[in-house]
Every structure is written in structure tokens, then in C-alpha cells.
Specification:
The complex is a heterodimer.
Chain A (H helix, E strand, L loop, with lengths): L7 H11 L9 H19 L8 H13 L8 H30 L9 E3 L11 E3 H14 L1 H13 L3 H8 L3 H27 L1
Helix pairs in contact in A: 2-3, 2-4, 3-4, 4-6, 4-7, 5-6, 5-8, 6-8, 7-8
Chain B lengths: L2 H15 L3 H12 L3 H12 L2 H7 L9 H6 L4 E2 L2 E9 L3 E8 L4 E8 L6 H15 L9 E9 L2 E9 L5 E2 H7 L4 H20 L2 E2 L8 E3 L5 E3 L6 E2 L9 H10 L6 H4 L8 H17 L11 H10 L5 H4 L6 H9 L11 H13 L10 H28 L5 H22 L2 H23 L14 H10 L9 H17 L3 H18 L5 H16 L3 H19 L4 H16 L3 H18 L5 H16 L3 H19 L4 H16 L3 H18 L5 H17 L2 H19 L4 H16 L3 H19 L4 H17 L2 H17 L5 H17 L3 H19 L4 H16 L3 H8 L12 H15 L1
Antiparallel strand pairs in B: 1-2, 2-3, 3-4, 4-6, 5-6, 7-9, 8-11, 9-10
Helix pairs in contact in B: 1-2, 1-3, 8-11, 8-15, 11-14, 14-15, 17-18, 18-19, 18-20, 20-21, 21-22, 22-23, 23-24, 24-25, 24-26, 25-26, 26-27, 27-28, 28-29, 29-30, 30-31, 30-32, 31-32, 32-33, 32-34, 33-34, 34-35, 35-36, 36-37, 36-38, 37-38, 38-39
Classes of the chains: A mainly alpha, B alpha+beta.
Chain lengths: 201, 910
């Protein structure tokens, strides 16, 4: 009854039924997703359209809440990376679903876009509001060009991992991540600004 | 761009980054040849500044999307040349711009591009129309409003007075070392400006230093009426959405009624309060409440309940009249404050000129009131704590309920924009009434005056509030419906379905009677009720309601739409649960058909629908159809969401599990390999989800008899799960069982026994003796003894299993049946035929009664019984039981067969 509004009930019902067949499904993803969704939902609810939301902060809050890492426990390091790998995907999905829900809730073809500020993408002049769906599309496209770059971008944007953390998580050299990330960012910037120019030309 | 091209570029970038200076240039010239575009792209990527590379090292690198940022700034809008961005809010971006004619600098507020919807545009125009009515030297003037057209999109904007070199009032006072009287003088100008707004029916609602500027000449300019709403009757409904957001941002300047997010309580006196905070800060440099670093709930509580710091506490010289004036402006109850900005201003003038002020120091009654308020707050706070426990969430229910009234108010607001005045007023009345009910009846129910129980639960509070509804709104059925909907939703959230039901039912009745049939309010009510009925298992009633929703969608959205398809799917699902397969199947099939025709390319609901249809077929034993649908859902998800999407992986796993379940291990293996590869790529080798697939793949191979393939997989699964999850994690323990089974099948009995014994010990420790998984461990060991031919040992174990199953009151009769079957088979081997007969017949009864006479497991039992009668030469019984054997399945009662059958069930259930 919360962020979806009541029209979400049927969907929720179906999803629950549909995923009841969780025999082989892992427990982590839905758990993380639910937690992120609830945390993000709280922010979505409490803010105006076109609000800012820091996905990284949400993911970290979820991490603290779900994992409760004991201080200074080195063994938790890999757990942490696993968590953030899942969480990045889940967070992205939360944002997309939220944006889509918003869109779907609007009848009559109104264009409603969800903007989110990524700390990663903040510009010095003003907060850079990134259209979640446009970013999602761009990332999907990037994934087709270079899957790892898209994954790096996802981990950076949605889970806020550092280059070194991304490198450990993906088991590649930090230098490689750095170059991949640089290229990915460049490509995304072009892709997103292309979109802007196309539609405002 | 093609992947090939991208990879080519990537290679060049990587190689070039290894070089520098001339070597790099030479390399680029060589690598790019005369492909100028490639060269440009590569150089752009490489050319990003060194500073950026440094930034990349920091955890949250503030790397700018410069290109996107700059190109999104238009060069010109209407008559205005855009110079730079000076601010941004939820509604829009504010630019500094230059107007041609007349030539002047303006602040240009432009709607965010994507928000240029019809309703947003109306809101914008409405906002600027109000502002255009304001003409005051202390208020930033709105010059012009307009709509900037780009292609077919409209970007509304308004141009307002640009306040050059302005500072927030508090900083201005500090920087210029203003004396106390000079500060009061300055503040009087602010009061003038706000008073002007109030005279025009406008509440500022967001007064804070950042919105009260002073330019270099000492002129006050109040800016940003972005959240201003008129107080005229026809515009009386305010949107709470804004306030709730502001709870985070500008809490310090908000009056208690704003903190409580009560739209009906906000009026010009809320601005008086904010002015009081501003004056307090202007005088002392401090805020009256310290709410930084507190949670929202704590901060809100402090503002509502605690007494503000007195000015004199910061500076003794501010004691006396000025302190009293500020305290009066900061009164919790609006009616105890200055009733207007003008009154506030006059008292300040009295202070400046040495006249007696009207404000009086706080009285004893005042103190008592504050005390009472604190107590009320305490009750509310304990309510929050309880709710947090119940719901497991962070958000307090008080805030939830306020958000609920916010939605009511928001909806009313929307209606105002879109519907007639009469309708708008009706919605406004409903919103206000719901609000009043939540505050007076629900929240008041937990006040100490009304309850002696400090630990009153939310459930009790809801019950108390619910008792007040009956007969309270004889003439306002829609108000009652809205309140009951809210109550029903809250009960539902708490899982109190029985309590929710009557309210939701009544809400449907009321809306049916008082709204047109296609009204969205009717649909909302029916949807909530349908979900509750379904979850309570009232399938007939749920069916009726889902049917209504389906009809509703057909009328409103049309037959061939995704909405209607989804509604059909829901209805069909309920029909199936109600046992009406004949009706469910064609309906769901039709829904999928429509869904396929009308779904967008990325509509993941379609995947869900196709999966549901597959499940329906599976339930009906139409395995081929089910497999086809599961497969289709998997393919669709791959196409729509991509091969690495979690939904795709889930669909893949579901498909594989299904294949496993129907004994098609080959098919399952193919899918699992695919899923595993994707998971290893996305999630990594050690991810729990990857390990689930690894385990299932190993199991599928084992089931297929391909022990060589299964071995490394099951070994790795056990090793990784133990390492990643710990040896006592259910997944790790299951892996141990699986590896044990593999060793048994390999004939490595000692290793098998050791694994199974360890698994049994761990399971017993973690889950207890009678947990199904622990009992499965016993079964594993029994099978091991069966294989070794030590039937005396296994017989004891089967006996123990039956005892434990029956003791554990398992709902899954098939487990008990399985244990009896194994027991009977074992006794047969021991040639204790009488005992064996009894156990096998028992097993047969249980299997046949639960799964039907033709079920594979039932048939195994029949086979065993037939074999027993053949061995004991009981020809009458033999003839009788042979007729129960399905002709096409000459099932011979072997332990091996059963092993696979039940092991499969176990694997699938995990």
C-alpha cells in the first residue's frame, strides 16, 4: 500500500505468486532488492518529483542493515564485495522499476521521467539530474559493446565502489578498471548528451 | 556503433595509454590510419584531464559529466540569453540570463525538461500567476512567464528580478557587523515583504536565510516562492508532498504544524513562526532548536515538544522584550503566536521605540501545556517504536499515516487542477476530513489522556480509532470510504487481514453507491479488497472482485491492452486457485496473447504472465505445454531484460528446476550451464546464487548418472559454500548431503558415510532432530546401508524416520509415505514379509491418497507390493494388485527407483 499505490496490488500479488517457485533461486537477491526498495521507497515517498537520491548512500545503508559487518573483520571483505555486486544490480532495478511505475501510473502518455542525482555524475555547476531510464538504456547498450565496462559503471554508479574495490570484485587489475571506467564514462557522457541534442535540436 | 568497432577503439585506447608523448602520437597515427573519426574518439577518451584520473581514485569521485552538463544548458530561451546556472530545485533550473529588451539581467527559472507534462505545466503557470500579482520592493519581481518550445516539447519558464551580489540576511548582518537595532530594522523590511504576500493570500512556506537576501545596497529581497500556495478558498488545498520532503531539508525553520505535515493547519501564522526562527538566528547567530545530526523523527519531536532556547541564553543583552517577542513568534500553537506579520512587526517597532510590547512572558499555563505536549509526544514515540518492531521498518507509522493523508491531499490538488471547482472542493473536504480523523482519532488514541497503557500497540490504536467511524459521517459517505480505505491499508500492512476486511468491504460499498462505476476510486477500493480476500483464501469472493477489475479495465483501457491482459492474468490465477481450471486456462491464454500483442519491448510484466501460464500448465500436469511456456518466459526475459538480468536468471533456474522435476535432466543441464555461465560473469564464482546453480547442475548430472561431470561440481559447491557461507549454512549442509550421495553412487561408501554422518550432526545441531532436513540425512544414511546390503542397519533408520516424521506433524504426507516405502522395501529384503506388507500398504495408502493412484511414487509402491506377493506366492492378492499397475509402466520395486524419485523432490524443494 505504500509507494506503489493500490494499483500495485495486483502486480505485487502476481509477482509473489510468480516467484513462489523459488526452489533454485537464491535468497540474497530478493532480500537485497526488497531492502533497497524499502529504503529508497522511503526517500521516494518523502521527496518531490525530480528529487535527488543518492543510490550509493542507500546501498550502504542497506549493507549496514542487512549484513551488520563486525568491525575490523578481514574475512568480511569478500562478503562485502559480493553484497555490493548484487546490490548494484538490485539498486539499478529498484530505480528503473520505480521510474517505470511512475510512468505506468500516468495515463494519457504523459512523459514523466525520474531523475536521480548520482554523486558520481555531479557537475560543479549544478546537480546533474540524470534520467534513470536513459541511463539504464545507455548502460544496456554499453553492455552489448563491452560487458565489463557496463558492469564497472553499474558498480560505480549504483553501489559506489571505488576503482580498487571494483578491481577486487571483478578480479582484474585496478589499472584496467581505471581505463575501462574512463572509456565507459566517456561513452556514457556522449550517449546521454546525444540523447539531449537529438531531442532538443 | 558495433561491438567490434568499440572493441577496436578500446584496444587502441588501452595500448595508447601505455605510451606517452611522441610515442603515443606515433602509435595513434599508425593504429587509426586515416579513420579520422576513430582518431578523434580515441583522443577524446585519452584526453580527459589528469585531474580526473586523480579523482577516480577517491571513493566517491566527483567526476563531472561535463559534456552532458554543458550541452544540456540551452544558449537561449525566448528573449533571454543564458549565461550560467545559479541554482536548481525539484521544479526547475534557475539560470542567470540577459534579456534583450529591456536590456537587463534576470533570473530565469526553467522547468526541468522532462517535467513538462500537462499537469506540471498547469501547476507552473498557476504558480507564476500568483507571483505576478506580487509587486513589492522586498520581493523579487516576476517580470514575465512563458513557454519555450523545442520541437514538440514545451519548457515553461519565468523571468524574475535578478538580485546581484546578494547575501543571505544572516550573513549580510554578520559581514557588516550590524548592531542589534540595525538588525531589527533590517528584519522589519522582511516583515513588510512577507506581509505584502499575506495580503495577497500567499504564504511563503519556505522562509530561511537562503530565501531572504540582502543586496549590496541593503535592500531586502525575498526570493523563491516556489512552494508558495495561495490561501484563497478555492486554492485552499496545499500539497503535503512538498512538506514531507522538507522535513529533511529545512526542518529548522518549520513550525510544529508544518513538521506535523498537516496541510489544513498551515496558514500565515506558519510564516510568523519561521520569521521568529529567522529573527532568533539573526540576533544570536544560533537556531532556537538544535536538530542537526538528529533523525527526522527525533528532530520533528524536538520541534513539536521542546522549548526553544531563549535568546538570552546566547547573549545576556538580548534578554527582555526582544526575547519575549521571539518566544511569542515561536509559540507551538498558532493561536498563541502573533496573528499576523503586521502584529509581529508592530511589536518589534514597540521594542525599538521603547514602547510596551504586547507579548507577555510565558505563563504557568504555558509551561503546563508544554508538559502535556511532551507526554503526548512520548506516547507517539513509543507507538513509533512498536511499529518499527512490527513492520521491521525504519519509517514510523505516524509518518506513514501522514504520507497517506499527503496522498489524499495530493490527489485533491490534482483534482483541483483537472476538474471542476465543485469536484475539487469535494476532494479537498475528503482530504481534510481524513486528515482530521488520523490526527484526532488515531493519533489521539495513544495520548496519555486517552489511555493508561504506555505500551499501547498500533493494533489497539487502530481498533480504537475504527470504533469511532460508525455513524460519524452519515452525510459524507466518501469521507468514510477514504478513512476506511486508509485503515484497511494499515491493517493489511500489519498483516491483520481479518481486521482489514470489513473496512475494505465497506469502502467498496460506499464508493459503489456514491461514485460513477468507472471512477478510479472504485477500482482502488476493489483492488485492495481483492488482494485481501485472495490472501485470506476466500477465492470465490476474490474471483468476483478480480472479475470486476477485469471488466473495469476492459471498459476503461480497452480489451486489447496490457492493463487488461494483466487483469485477465490475475483473474485467471485466482480461478485456478479456486479450482476452476476450465475457465482459467482460456482466460490466461488469451491474456498472454493480448500481452504479447500490446506489451512494450521492455514490459517485464509479460514475462511474469507467460511464466504464470507455464505454472498453470504445470499444475495441470500438461508438462509439454508448461515446458514450452517456461522456456518462452526465459527467452522473453533474455530478450527484454538481457541475459544477465536477475529475472532472466530466475526464469532460467525455474525452467531448469522444472525439467529436473519432470526427469528431463538433459534439458535442465543445458539451461543450468547457460545460467551458471552468466552468473559467474555477473556475480562471480563464489556468489551464493552462482553456487546454487553450480549445485543444481551437479545434481542434475548426478541424476543423469553422469558421475564424472557431477563430481567436480559438487565438490566445488561444498568447498565454496563452506568457505563463503560457513559449514552450518543450510546450503552448505545440503551440498554435503549431495556430495555424500555422489560418493555412495560411486561406491565410495566410507567417504559417503563420513559425509552423511557429519551432515546429520550439523543438521541436528542447527535445525534440531525433527526438522525435515535432518530426517532427510537419516534417509541418506539408510540408503547407504541399503546399497551396502546392510538391511538390518537401514531398517532401524527407516523406523526412526517414520517416528520422527509422525512426531514432527509434517504437513507433507509424502515424506511419511516415502519413509514407510523405504521401510517396507528394507523389510522385504530381510524377508520379514508380514511386516513388509503392512508398511508397503501404508505407503501405498498415503501416496495414493495424496498424489493419486497413477502418481509415479504410488506406482513404485504398487510395484513393490506386487513383487512382495509374487515372492510370497499370494496369487489372489498378486492378481488384484497387478490391476492397479499402469499397463505402460512395468515398475519393478527397486530401491534405486525410489531413491531418485524422492531425492529429486528434495533437491527441487530447496
Amino acid at each position: 500500500m505504500d509507494e506503489n499505490g493500490r494499483q500495485g496490488d495486483v502486480t505485487v500479488l502476481l509477482r509473489r505468486i510468480g516467484t513462489a517457485d523459488s526452489r533454485a533461486a537464491d535468497e540474497l537477491m530478493p532480500l537485497v532488492y526488497a531492502e533497497l526498495r524499502s529504503l529508497a521507497g522511503r526517500l521516494f515517498r518523502s521527496q518531490d518529483v525530480g528529487h535527488t537520491l543518492d543510490p550509493t548512500a542507500v546501498v550502504h545503508e542497506a549493507y549496514l542493515k542487512l549484513v551488520r559487518p563486525p568491525a575490523g573483520d578481514a574475512d568480511q571483505w569478500s562478503d562485502r564485495l559480493h553484497f555490493f555486486r548484487v546490490a548494484a544490480t538490485a539498486m539499478r532495478q529498484v530505480l528503473i522499476n520505480h521510474a517505470r511505475d511512475k510512468q505506468a501510473a500516468k495515463r494519457g502518455g504523459d512523459l514523466v521521467r525520474q531523475y536521480v542525482t548520482f554523486s558520481e555524475l555531479a557537475t560543479p555547476s549544478h546537480d546533474s539530474m540524470i534520467d534513470v531510464l536513459a541511463l539504464h538504456d545507455a548502460l544496456e547498450e554499453l553492455a552489448r559493446l563491452d560487458a565489463r565496462q557496463a558492469q564497472i559503471a553499474e558498480l560505480r554508479f549504483f553501489a559506489g565502489l571505488t576503482v580498487d574495490e571494483v578491481a577486487s570484485a571483478l578480479n582484474v587489475a585496478p589499472r584496467t578498471v581505471q581505463l575501462d571506467w574512463k572509456m565507459a564514462k566517456h561513452w556514457l557522457a556522449e550517449r546521454l548528451s546525444d540523447g539531449l541534442m537529438e531531442s532538443s535540436a | 556503433m558495433t561491438p567490434e568497432r568499440y572493441q577496436q577503439m578500446k584496444q587502441i585506447v588501452m595500448a595508447a595509454s601505455e605510451r606517452s608523448g611522441a610515442a603515443r602520437l606515433a602509435y595513434l597515427a599508425d593504429a587509426c590510419g586515416d579513420d579520422a573519426e576513430l582518431r578523434v574518439q580515441v583522443e577524446r577518451i585519452l584526453g580527459d584531464s589528469a585531474a580526473e584520473t586523480a579523482l577516480l581514485q577517491s571513493p566517491v569521485a566527483a567526476v563531472a559529466f561535463d559534456a552532458a552538463g554543458d550541452s544540456s544548458m540551452p544558449r537561449r530561451i525566448g528573449d533571454y540569453e543564458i549565461l550560467r546556472v545559479i541554482g536548481g530545485g525539484g521544479m526547475g533550473i534557475v539560470y542567470e540570463a540577459m534579456q534583450k529588451n529591456p536590456q537587463r539581467a534576470v533570473a530565469l527559472k526553467v522547468m526541468r525538461e522532462g517535467l513538462a507534462s500537462e499537469s506540471a505545466r498547469r501547476r507552473f503557470e498557476y504558480e507564476s500567476a500568483i507571483l505576478a500579482r506580487l509587486r513589492h520592493p522586498g520581493i523579487a519581481q516576476v517580470y514575465e512567464t512563458g513557454v519555450h518550445r523545442v520541437d514538440d516539447r514545451e519548457m515553461p519558464y519565468f523571468a524574475m528580478e535578478y538580485v546581484a551580489n546578494a547575501k543571505p540576511i544572516t550573513r549580510y548582518a554578520e559581514d557588516n557587523h550590524l548592531s542589534t537595532p540595525a538588525r531589527v530594522e533590517l528584519f522589519l523590511k522582511v516583515c513588510d515583504a512577507i506581509q505584502h504576500g499575506h495580503q495577497h493570500g500567499i504564504i511563503h512556506r519556505d522562509l530561511k536565510p537562503g530565501n531572504v537576501l540582502v543586496d549590496s545596497d541593503g535592500h531586502v529581497k525575498v526570493i523563491d516562492f516556489g512552494v508558495a500556495r495561495a490561501t484563497h478558498a478555492d486554492l485552499s488545498v496545499t500539497t503535503l508532498r512538498t512538506e514531507i520532503g522538507q522535513l529533511i531539508g529545512t526542518l529548522q525553520y518549520m513550525s510544529p504544524e508544518q513538521v506535523e505535515a498537516d496541510p489544513s493547519a498551515i496558514d500565515t501564522r506558519s510564516d510568523v513562526y519561521a520569521l521568529g526562527v529567522l529573527l532568533h538566528e539573526l540576533m544570536s547567530g544560533e537556531l532556537p532548536y538544535h536538530v542537526r545530526n538528529l533523525t527526522i523523527i527525533e528532530a520533528a519531536r524536538r520541534i513539536r515538544e521542546s522549548q526553544p532556547t531563549r535568546l538570552g541564553a546566547h547573549n545576556r543583552r538580548l534578554r527582555g522584550d526582544l526575547e519575549t517577542i521571539v518566544l511569542k513568534a515561536l509559540e507551538k500553537e498558532p493561536h498563541r503566536r502573533y496573528q499576523s506579520t503586521d502584529e509581529f512587526r508592530r511589536d518589534l517597532q514597540n521594542y525599538l521605540t521603547g514602547h510596551p510590547i504586547s507579548a507577555r512572558p510565558p505563563s504557568v499555563i504555558y509551561q503546563l501545556r508544554v508538559f502535556a505536549r511532551r507526554n503526548r509526544g512520548f506516547a507517539a514515540a513509543s507507538l513509533c517504536a512498536i511499529v518499527a518492531l512490527i513492520a521491521g521498518g525504519v519509517l514510523s507509522t505516524v509518518l506513514y499515516l501522514r504520507a497517506e493523508s499527503a496522498r489524499q491531499a495530493e490527489r485533491a490538488q490534482r483534482e483541483i487542477a483537472e476538474a471542476s471547482t465543485v469536484e475539487a472542493q469535494r476532494q479537498a473536504r475528503i482530504a481534510t476530513a481524513v486528515n482530521a480523523f488520523l490526527n484526532d482519532d488515531l493519533l489521539a488514541a495513544v495520548s496519555p489522556q486517552n489511555t493508561s497503557d504506555p505500551n499501547i500497540t498500533l493494533r489497539a490504536a487502530l481498533d480504537a480509532a475504527a470504533a469511532h467511524i460508525d455513524g460519524k459521517f452519515p452525510d459524507e459517505p466518501l469521507v468514510e470510504a477514504a478513512i476506511r480505505t486508509t485503515l484497511g491499508a494499515t491493517y493489511t500492512q500489519l498483516g491483520e487481514l481479518t481486521a482489514a476486511l470489513p473496512h475494505l468491504q465497506r469502502a467498496v460499498e460506499l464508493r459503489d453507491a456514491n461514485l460513477p462505476p468507472n471512477d478510479i476510486g472504485v477500482r482502488e477500493a476493489v483492488t485492495s479488497l481483492a488482494a485481501v480476500e485472495y490472501h485470506m483464501g476466500n477465492y470465490d469472493e476474490a474471483e468476483r472482485l478480480f472479475r470486476r477489475l477485469y471488466e473495469f479495465s476492459r471498459r476503461v483501457n480497452g480489451e486489447n491492452t496490457m492493463e487488461t491482459a494483466t487483469a485477465m492474468n490475475s483473474l485467471a490465477f485466482v480461478l485456478q486457485r479456486a479450482g476452476k481450471q476450465a475457465e482459467a486456462i482460456p482466460l490466461m491464454e488469451r491474456g498472454v496473447e493480448i500481452g504479447k500483442a500490446s506489451a512494450r519491448d521492455d514490459d517485464l510484466d509479460l514475462v511474469q504472465m507467460v511464466g504464470n501460464l507455464g505454472q498453470l500448465y504445470a499444475v495441470l500436469d500438461r508438462y509439454d505445454d508448461a515446458a514450452a511456456l517456461y522456456k518462452e518466459a526465459y527467452a522473453l526475459s533474455q530478450k527484454m531484460a538481457g541475459p544477465l538480468h536477475p529475472l532472466t536468471l530466475t526464469c532460467g533456474n525455474n525452467l531448469a528446476s522444472f525439467y529436473n522435476l519432470i526427469g528431463q535432466a538433459d534439458q535442465a543441464i543445458g539451461i543450468l550451464q547457460e545460467v551458471l555461465k552468466a552468473q559467474q560473469q555477473v556475480l562471480g564464482d563464489d556468489h551464493p546464487q552462482t553456487l546454487v546453480t553450480l549445485n543444481n547442475l551437479g545434481f542434475a548430472y548426478m541424476q543423469q548418472g553422469n558421475l564424472a561431470e557431477a563430481e567436480p561440481l559438487l565438490e566445488t559447491a561444498l568447498e565454496a559454500r563452506t568457505r563463503v557461507l560457513g559449514e552450518k549454512h543450510p546450503h552448505a549442509m545440503l551440498s554435503m548431503c549431495n556430495l555424500g550421495t555422489l560418493r555412495r553412487m560411486q561406491g565410495r561408501f566410507d567417504e559417503a558415510e563420513q559425509l552423511h554422518r557429519t551432515a546429520l550432526k550439523l543438521h541436528t545441531e542447527v535445525l534440531g532432530e525433527d526438522h525435515p532436513d535432518t530426517i532427510f540425512c537419516l534417509r541418506d544414511i539408510a540408503r547407504l546401508y541399503d546399497d551396502k546390503g546392510d538391511f538390518a542397519a537401514s531398517e532401524e533408520l527407516y523406523q526412526e524416520m517414520v517416528k520422527r516424521w509422525e512426531r514432527s506433524h509434517t504437513e507433507d504426507v509424502l515424506n511419511i509415505a516415502g519413509a514407510y516405502l523405504g521401510w517396507g522395501q528394507c523389510l522385504t529384503k530381510l524377508e520379514r514379509f508380514d511386516d513388509a506388507e503392512a508398511k508397503l500398504l501404508k505407503a501405498y495408502d498415503l501416496f495414493a491418497g495424496t498424489a493419486g493412484p497413477d502418481d509415479r511414487r504410488t506406482q513404485v509402491a504398487v510395484g513393490d507390493i506386487v513383487a512382495l506377493y509374487r515372492a510370497t506366492a499370494q496369487s489372489d492378492k498378486l492378481a488384484e494388485w497387478r490391476t492397479k499397475l499402469k499397463a505402460d509402466e512395468e515398475v519393478s520395486g527397486t530401491a534405486g527407483m525410489t531413491t531418485n524419485g524422492t531425492a529429486l523432490t528434495q533437491a527441487a524443494s530447496k
